[in-house]
Amino acid sequence: MTAQGVVDYAKKVLSLSRDHAQTPELSSGSPDAVLGSGREGAPDLAKIDRESVVPASRGFQVSAANLPALPAAQAPKALDSSAAGLDWANVDVDALEKYNAATQLDKSDSSPGEKAASWRRLATDAPKFADIAAKRAAEWDQYEVQWKAGEDARQKRTEARDADWEKLGRLLALGVVPANDKRAWSAQFVKAYMRAPGLEPEMAKALAPYVAPGPTQTALKALALKEDGEGGAKNSRTGVLSFKSGSWWEYETDMGGTGNSLRITKVGEFDDFEGKPGFFFTNDDKETKVRTYYSSSRDGVSMVGMKMDNPKFQAVYTYDPPMLAYPPKLKIGTEWRSKTVMKNQLTHLELNKTTVDRTSMEGNSRVTGREKVTVPAGTFDCYVVKAQSKVDLTSSGGISVSGDSVGTTWFSPRLGQIVKSEMENSMMVTSGGKQTPSRSHTSQVLMRYGDASSK
Fold first, then answer.
1. Per-residue pLDDT for 300 more than 80?
2. How confident is the model at residue 396 (pLDDT cuts 50, 70, 90)?
3. pLDDT value of position 84
4. Do 450 and 109 meet the contact criterion of CB atoms below 8 Å apart?
5. Stretch 257-271: mean pLDDT, rounded?
6. Cβ distance 411 to 421 under 8 Å?
7. Those residues with Cβ within 8 angstroms of residue 295's Cβ, 6 or more apart along the chain or in another chain
8. What distance separates the 2 farthest-apart alpha carbons in the chain?
């Protein structure tokens, strides 16, 4: 407690005692009293602490007071996409399929810009629907202006919230800070940020004890359950990763900087990996289906294994120990290390042969800042994560591979996923005493995303 806090506390004691007919002995025989011979009960110090009113501005003040409110943005009304009344005997099926695709995208969680672009493509590719498409594109263009203004305002409020929490979170953890101060500051913070941009589970968990019982505290406690990993399959956020069964993210990946790209869609599902509960993302392309399995704990989100299916081979990768992908929370300066041995059991289907390889892997990641990033899926406020990794593989076939990677990823805390990444890779392959070096560049951007209803 500060010196001023002692003075304020003493003043409150005197004010509460002002009308008491207390004798000079100050207290009665209460064991809590300073002296024990007076005729009147000692002041209830706990009650004094509870009733003390501390100015909310003392020691902490939220930054949101200087920020404008989030502008209102009204999305276009749901589209009546019914094809009733068409002359089915002479219908242009190709044009109708393109119209159907545009209406499906219109209902998805894709960005306003992508929806507008979709309708403009339809106007060009299917002139029969040009008037409808042009009108709908204009509606989404108008909304995108409002939406971007809202996103800019939300980003500023998010930055202010995180800066305020950096201080308040530390203050709430200190036992020497008076409880009444904590209550006043928590009330400020909740009032400023709970509606927009919202609170993270870790914030709700720390704030709940200092918020008066009622609907707000109930909401904070419900949100705090996600920090503790409760909620099972209904939980849409597993650590920092956003996850919901059936949710999907479509990426375009440029392999090797050659301009050769492929689109990979990640689809989330809950499942066990070798008897351990968790969840996985399926990277489904034309050739190989890859399932990457994760588990969540108080330590963060870790990769526990991977399965690959191809017409020519099947592979099962096991990480021992699980490889930490993300810590429990992200903020500027957060750093984490990971080290594991990956066991790869590869089955060649045509040869009916199985080989087992082991790869040692280690990496270091650090959140270096925040940036606003625009990709085809929209504009996102992202954490910038710089990462370095090293791998050494020893193959049962006599081939060894060693390599290093340096990269940057842009992770959206709102979306709970990576929206962009850039990676530089260098490898050295040794076989039969001959060494072959290689270098490559890989980039990836998020094209669109949605849930099971918009796939």
1. yes
2. low
3. 55
4. yes
5. 64
6. no
7. 273, 276, 277, 278, 301, 302, 304, 322
8. 105
255-294: burial string, b at 16+ Cβ within 10 Å, e else: eeeeeeeeebbbbbeeeebeeeebbbbbbbeeeeebbbbb
Q: Where in the chain are the domains?
A: 1-52, 61-82+89-228, 237-454
Fold adopted by 237-454: YmcC-like fold (2.40.360)
SS3 203: helix
Mean pLDDT of 202-230: 82
Can the peptide bond before residue 201 be classed as cis, meaning omega within 30 degrees of 0? Answer: no
pTM exceeds 0.85 for this model: no
Structure tokens at 299: 């330590």
Rounded mean pLDDT, 51-63: 59
d(CA 370, CA 385): 9
Contact 17, 27 (CB under 8 A): no
Closest residue by Cα to residue 69 from 153, 1, 178, 6: 153
Cis ω on the peptide bond leading into residue 213 (within 30° of 0)?
A: no
